[in-house]
Design a protein that fits this description.
single chain; 235 residues; alpha+beta; Phosphorylase Kinase, domain 1; D-amino Acid Aminotransferase, Chain A, domain 1; 2 domains; 6-stranded antiparallel sheet; 5-stranded antiparallel sheet; 36% strand
């Protein structure tokens, strides 16, 4: 049962439950971009993101990757284990797109020789700046061994998800992951949705993620529904 509000962000809200150590994560219909400067409410987006994220978490757990996911409850609610979240997110890149192109002058679409993992400090006011392991250790954000575990888990997630998506004609360009500690162990948390992934149609290169909203390329809910349908998710 959902109880008190614990946290509310741009796309999700967390509520306490009547079970100690468990939370309800609610996916909202809000769509934001450019640090909240662009905002809209898109009916059904929360339901789509909840279903897609639940699907990915279930597949990852079946592959032996530990996550905070327990089960989907209702259209836009997910029951999860409470984690002590790390203030560091890991971005995995298979193809150059987005900020790495601006930072390094790379051409969008450049296929990387191997998956690249980057670290970012989670702080909206600072624009989530890029950091390294030394920053994490020096400022107490994460231990070196935790960062190593996060990078390895991120590469494992990339392998599983890339294979899954490629099988339905979608290329996993890049994505962000968040992690937390549960009983001292690094566990995958947060969400995995087209909000935090770049997904391109393999044949046409058409974008199937939040860049559709950022760049005014069409209807976001229609694109997310297409991703769900290709994956065999019943909406």
């Amino acid at each position: 049962m959902k109880k008190a509000l614990k946290y509310e962000g741009k796309g999700k809200a967390l509520f306490s439950t009547d079970v100690e150590g468990e939370l309800i994560q609610v996916f909202k219909d809000d769509a934001t971009a450019f640090d909240g400067k662009k905002h809209d409410v898109i009916t059904g987006k929360g339901h789509l993101n909840c279903a897609i994220s639940s699907f990915f978490f279930e597949k990852l757990q079946a592959a032996g990757i530990k996550t905070h996911y327990i089960q989907q409850e209702g259209d836009n609610e997910m029951r999860i284990q409470a984690l002590k979240m790390m203030p560091v997110e890991v971005v995995v890149r298979n193809i150059a797109a987005g900020s790495i192109c601006r930072r390094l002058g790379l051409e969008e679409g450049l296929r990387l020789q191997r998956p690249l993992t980057e670290l970012f400090y989670k702080d909206d006011a600072l624009g989530d700046p890029m950091i390294n392991t030394e920053h994490c250790e020096l400022f107490g954000w994460a231990k070196a061994e935790d960062i190593h575990a996060m990078r390895q888990l991120a590469r494992d997630v990339n392998r599983v998800m890339s294979d899954m998506l490629e099988a339905v004609g979608i290329r996993l360009v890049d994505f962000k992951l968040e992690f937390g500690l549960r009983h001292g162990e690094i566990v995958l948390g947060d969400e995995i949705t087209p909000d935090g992934c770049r997904l391109w149609d393999i044949e046409s290169g058409r974008k199937l993620d939040k860049d559709v909203f950022r760049q005014d390329l069409g209807g976001l809910s229609e694109v997310y529904h297409e991703v769900a349908t290709r994956l065999g998710i019943n909406i």
